[in-house]
Design goal:
about 300 residues; mainly beta; about 60% strand; Toastrack_DUF4097
Length: about 300
Amino acid sequence: MKRFFCVLFACMLALGAAMAIYGYQNGASMSLYWADGHVYTEKEFDSLAESEEWTELPEGVSGLALELNNADVTIRQGDVFHISADYQRGSAPEATVENGVLRLRDEASAHIGFGFSLGPSHKENTVTIELPEGALTALDILTGVGDLSLEDVHLETLTVEMDMGSAALKDVSCDRLSVQCNLGDFTLEGGEFGTAELTMNMGSLAFSGAVRTAMRAQSDMGDVDLSGALAGEIEVNANLGTVSIDSQLPRSAYALDLGTDLGNLTVDGERIGTDSISPSLQQEEGENSLRVRADMGDILVQFGAEE
């Protein structure tokens, strides 16, 4: 056994020395990347990069659809239409126009692997989009791995589907919002929506803004935090996590159906059903409705002051 560990240590030492010599001979790179069954230096890995750019919105296009396997996406308002895609791994997206929709698709990366380095190294695919006000009415985003940032974008329809990654939406407004996030946190700040359908599998959901007609939020695992002018039909279903509601509307504005199977229920600072492990509260009258159900987790609701 002792001999085995000596041999293993010697092999690791030889491998480390070989890596150091290889890196030095290739420009003294501090990072090595394993992909496609090969070891790349940072210079060699950079040579795999691809970039694309689009500076004009095709005539007759009112929608944009992104189908990206591995990229961080940033979308913001700008003076002119502009899309840039910088891919360190795999092929940059290709653009097609279908039925009035500009569609950007990338292929599953052939260069996804892992990197190891002696210093800091960060290489990600990025797509950056600038949209003039009113340029588009619909935006459809489908991502595999990567984060999403949207700021100051106003649409009729926004659909977001993410497999793995976090999202931050600031001052984004639309008539219809649909979100499905499998793994990652989703934050919406300062927007206004007609209807919103939010589905979270694993990750926290935070919403601060206004809803005019309806909001339905479903969370399998993670906290849900909603605040703002929450009008219309508001429904939250949480399997595991804390639900916090802070509405600008007064309590009298809602018909209420609140309950948790295992947890505490607190409304306007008052603990409800202290003698029950499954507290609930119902209120029939109200111009709007608020229904919150939790399988395992606390529910905290705060209403605005009565006029």
